Amino acid sequence: MPYSEAQKRATAKYMKNNLDELKIRMPKGKKEEIRAFAEGKGKSLNSFVNEAIDDKIERDK
Fold this sequence. Notes:
Blueprint: H1 5-18, H2 30-40, H3 45-59
């Protein structure tokens, strides 16, 4: 089923109101290395990075 314009607007509105975005830069190839590792653990790249950041913050408190 195609993604309707109403669904696109609803998704954009949700993201604007509920999520922050963070852009990071890394050496070429590193993103794919992290993505492959995350997928091997059954996680998306986004969830893996968020979990890694949360773990680091918790350890360094």
